[in-house]
Design goal:
The complex is a heterodimer. Chain A is mainly α. Helix content of chain A is 55%, strand content 3%. Chain A contains 26 helices and three strands. In chain A, 33% of the residues are buried. Chain B is α+β, with helices and mostly antiparallel strands. A five-stranded mixed β-sheet of chain B has the order 4-3-2-1-5, covered by helices on one side. The chains are: A mainly alpha, B alpha+beta.
């Protein structure tokens, strides 16, 4: 912008009523033109000068010079003239809101050795940003272009490639030079390869790392966790940061043999007794004493525990049950017996919540199955009132080995299964059910619909089936298998069912088309 | 049978994102009863909410669409769905002779263009009535512009700082008087001005520029009798009173020296549909392969009406265009065109650098100070980020910023990968709105990209 233009704007801002003196125009050719304009008509002159000078400047503008560095370019892509066969599926997933099929789609792409075309990367990387559960499927198929793109957008950092190195001697440099996200990925990777070396590496920078980083690194210790980590972890009990301390306790509690777990277990066990009251067994709990200085030693700050409905002491009890080894309870009965025993206990909440947490963190199969059975029994009981969130149970279920999951579903599958919220427990299941079990799922749905005469149920069941659709075996829709689903579907052609049908067809076709050129590996 | 149409190319025809979505939902052979095709047409029957199925047909030579559904979108979702099936799974369509309802339409279409010509010749023009209509509009425009003149003066008399606190009604009243004055384009510009005082840094510069240019327009129009014919034509189109298309074409018939006629092999570079109040505006940019000329096809439709597709980005066809008289003629009408070749090849480079493109814009501005949109085909351009703004850089170290309304920056980045690409877009004097992208031999309209 020229000086003359700036003076013109200054006059215009004030207005010709207040600013009588008209500015001089330095640009010669514009000045020559303006000589023809009557300067005693101030508004006319100002507007004419502005219009002329603006056009003059626009016509005379030069390209601006770039001041910032260009980004390093990505690996060049080969020209693709044919549209890849998988692309219609990707479009369908996004245009028809079939995103639950994404993990399956992405892993098929990976199996067939293909990558996402560049133009779809932003959409998928964004999806991964909001849906962490697809990230592990996404990473292998974004290709070098995707990794390049992920470096440019902080939201997509998660997709950055983790430098690969199986040689611990090269780790040190990577560890010291990488940024936070990469370090976390590296650590998780290294913990699975060589937990000892990984731990030693963390120790070398521990003092310089921020509390936020330290807490994040501790989380990675869950991978490859053994008693050998105990010494390092115990040092963290004295950490300045409360978050780090909490993480240390959580990780140590995943080691039931650790000193901390054992100590907490002993203290807790001393508070529990099994007594006979009016001819019935009762689990009696003595509440922990808040003032005991030892809680502090265990990293439990009793005075600052979040107060629950049962007060501070109840909250401390919950903490102890969460952290103590589950083995301490064997003296009082099996998981099933105990869950039954506490159904009317005044500390039922603390105990069941604590067990749930412990079963998950200690990966205790007996307790996991017992807790799931207990949840189902309560949910299916018409008189039982369910107050707990289903999320932890969902997690518990998806952590079970596939065979146990299938066994459990087989036992559970009855028409009543379709009543209530039960099905939500199965949502995050990562395994696809065997074909026969998938048929059974549909058959029970059909039976339930026949049994319940309510019209409104069709919709509800269709919705639930939709939740489950990505764990159903894709061949349930194949024409050759006279699946019960077809019967259900044809009998109840509602929008929900037709969507579900489409979704299952999508899954099935995806497999056929994407894997058609892949050599079967034996 | 393989079709030269791919999903991407079909989606480029879609009028908007929601149509693309519904079209893809209908791209499922199970939703169609009848599905058929021959060399020049596709047809299908799709069960909608009504009792009778909708009958959808596509004339592949254009392509042109017709559907019995009540949708005002063009093409409608059924048209897109049918076309997508053809593009993706052409086996689902049975080859054969078209049913009567398709044949009738095809016959009618081949006759229509002939009839149009005849009808035009037959239409009697009453010169007296026409002169009277023109005089009436002339009077209204003169009065409207006199009002505008007063308004502009009033703004600078009060000062822009004072005007900044004026409510929207201040601008709207002035615009309404221009609507009465039958100068619709000016009315639109005044309404657009209302938002400038709240557009952040540099608002006063932008507002004063617009006020000054409008003032020159009013001044010019009031003295138009003393100005050359082309300036008069420019002024008329600037206020929203351009020649009608048939007037233009009949001037071309009479070989009037005011209109330019240009035959060439035209490549469709890009398309943009915008909505202004209740009006849909479609701009299609062409480039002549032999002449190197840029041309703009423009059409409008009320929001509730069908906006006819003018040409498909990426296609090439031989044709004759007639340019509207103007100071820097860009807008044109089609006098004659042959069927499209669907090649989707990258166009020939127009400017070697950003500097050269901006210099051309400067030259065009020097011819037409009211030029608002300028087509730019840039080659060997690398998109990159400057903070939160997506920019383009050329090999010579020059840069330009993309329009803040452009939302596909990441798609652009992903496709380029830091390598040079070709971009066609609309330059408004300070930012570029990309409309099409050339990368690795593909020419892709931005609207076909996610």
């Amino acid at each position: 912008m020229s000086q003359s233009w700036e003076t013109l704007v200054a006059v215009a801002l004030l207005g010709t009523d207040r600013q009588k003196a008209l500015p001089a125009i330095a640009e010669k050719s514009v000045k020559t033109l303006l000589v023809q304009v009557d300067a005693s008509d101030a508004e006319h002159w100002l507007l004419s000068a502005a219009g002329t000078l603006a056009a003059y400047q626009q016509a005379g503008q030069n390209a601006e010079k770039r001041t910032e560095r260009l980004i390093e370019s990505a690996e060049a892509e080969a020209p693709t003239l044919e549209e890849p066969a998988f692309l219609p599926f990707l479009r369908m997933i996004f245009t028809q809101d079939f995103q639950p099929a994404l993990p399956e789609f992405l892993s098929l792409l990976h199996q067939s050795g293909q990558c996402i075309p560049p133009e779809y990367l932003p959409q998928l990387l964004d999806w991964g940003h909001f849906h962490p559960e697809v990230r592990s499927h996404l990473r292998p198929v974004i290709g070098s272009r995707g990794e390049w793109l992920a470096r440019l957008n902080p939201k997509w950092r998660y997709a950055q490639a983790t430098p690969q190195s199986s040689n611990p001697e090269e780790w040190k440099e990577l560890w010291e030079t990488s940024d936070r996200t990469v370090r976390i990925n590296l650590l998780r990777e290294w913990r699975s390869q060589n937990p000892e070396a990984a731990r030693e590496l963390v120790a070398t920078t521990w003092k310089q790392d921020s509390a936020k980083d330290r807490a994040a690194f501790l989380e990675c210790f869950a991978v490859g966790l053994t008693l050998a980590d105990e010494g390092f972890l115990e040092k963290g009990l004295g950490d300045r940061s409360k978050d780090v301390k909490t993480k240390v306790i959580e990780i140590l509690s995943q080691l039931p043999e650790s000193r901390l777990s054992q100590q907490i277990g002993m203290r807790l066990k001393a508070l529990v007794s099994l007594n006979e009251v009016k001819g019935k067994q009762k689990l009696e709990i003595q509440l922990p004493d808040l003032d005991d200085p030892q809680w502090q030693e265990y990293g439990l700050d009793a005075s600052r525990l979040k107060q629950n409905m049962q007060g501070n002491r109840g909250a401390l009890l919950l903490q102890l049950v969460r952290l103590a080894p589950l083995s301490l309870w064997t003296d009082f009965g099996s998981p099933q017996t105990l869950l039954e025993l506490v159904s009317k206990n005044e500390w039922k909440e603390e105990l069941t919540q604590g067990w749930l947490f412990a079963a998950q963190h200690q990966q205790n199969l007996d307790w996991s199955v017992a807790l799931l059975d207990w949840a189902i029994a309560t949910l299916l009981n018409p008189l039982g009132r369910w107050m707990q969130p289903l999320n932890p149970f969902r997690q518990l279920f998806s952590d079970l080995p596939q065979a146990i999951q299938n066994q459990w579903i087989t036992n559970l599958l009855k028409p009543e299964f379709w009543k209530g919220d039960l099905v939500e427990i199965l949502i995050s299941n990562t395994y696809v059910l065997p074909l026969s079990l998938s048929h059974t799922v549909l058959a029970t749905a059909q039976q339930y619909l026949i049994d319940s005469s309510e019209q409104g149920q069709i919709r509800a069941v269709a919705k639930k089936l939709q939740y489950l659709s990505n764990i159903l075996h894709p061949d349930v829709v194949s024409k050759s298998s006279a699946g019960s689903f077809q019967t259900v579907y044809h009998a109840l052609q509602t929008d929900d069912f037709s969507r579900l049908w489409q979704f299952l067809v999508l899954l099935q076709q995806m497999r056929q088309v994407i894997l058609q050129d892949v050599e079967p590996q034996n | 049978m393989s079709s030269p149409w791919t999903t991407e190319k079909v989606l480029a025809l879609s009028p908007d994102a929601s149509s693309s979505k519904s079209g893809q939902q209908l791209a499922n052979a199970n939703k169609w009863g009848v599905l058929g095709h021959n060399a020049i047409a596709l047809w299908g029957e799709c069960q909608g909410s009504g009792k009778l199925p909708y009958r959808t047909q596509i004339d592949l030579t254009e392509p042109a669409f017709r559907c019995s559904c009540p949708s005002r979108k063009f093409p409608c979702k059924h048209g897109l769905g049918l076309f997508l099936i053809f593009a993706g799974q052409s086996d689902a369509l049975t080859q054969g002779n078209p049913p009567d309802w398709v044949q009738e339409w095809l016959d009618k279409r081949s006759q229509t263009s002939q009839k149009k010509q005849e009808a035009k010749a037959d239409k009697p023009v009453d010169p007296v009535a026409q002169a009277k209509r023109i005089a009436q509009r002339e009077a209204k425009v003169t009065a409207g512009l006199a009002d505008l003149d007063l308004f502009l003066r009033d703004v600078v008399r009060q000062g822009l700082a004072t005007v900044q606190s004026q409510p929207y009604s201040y601008w709207d009243r002035a615009a309404a008087r221009l609507v009465d004055g039958q100068a619709p384009v000016l009315a639109k510009r005044i309404r657009a001005m209302a938002s400038i005082p709240h557009s952040g840094q540099g608002w006063a510069d932008r507002l004063l520029t617009e006020l000054g240019k409008l003032h020159l327009l009013v001044q010019g129009y009031q003295r138009r009798d003393t100005l050359p014919e082309q300036v008069q034509a420019e002024l008329r189109s600037q206020i929203g009173w351009p020649l009608k298309q048939d007037e233009l074409l009949s001037l071309a018939e009479q070989a009037d020296s005011a209109v330019e006629v240009c035959s060439d092999r035209w490549q469709v570079l890009g398309r943009r549909v915008t909505e202004e109040d209740d009006l849909q505006v479609q701009r299609v940019w062409l480039q002549g392969q032999a002449s190197g000329r840029s041309a703009l096809l423009l059409n409008f439709a009320h929001r509730s009406q069908v906006l006819e597709s003018l040409a498909v980005p990426g296609t090439l066809w031989n044709g004759t265009l007639v340019f509207y008289p103007a100071l820097y003629p860009l807008r044109a009408a089609i006098k004659h065109r042959e069927a499209s070749d669907r090649t989707w090849m990258q166009p020939t480079a127009e400017y070697a650098s950003i500097g050269e493109a901006i210099a051309h814009y400067g030259a065009a501005m020097a011819q037409n100070p009211w030029l608002d949109i300028f087509p730019m085909l840039l080659t060997e351009i690398i998109p990159y980020w400057e903070g939160k703004t997506c920019c383009l850089a050329d090999g010579a170290g020059a840069r330009l910023s993309l329009d803040p309304g452009f939302k596909q920056e990441w798609t652009l980045m992903a496709l380029s990968g830091g390598h040079p690409v070709q971009i066609f877009g609309e330059w408004n004097g300070s930012t570029l709105m990309p409309l099409s992208l050339g990368v690795l031999g593909r020419w892709i309209p931005m609207e076909a990209l996610p």
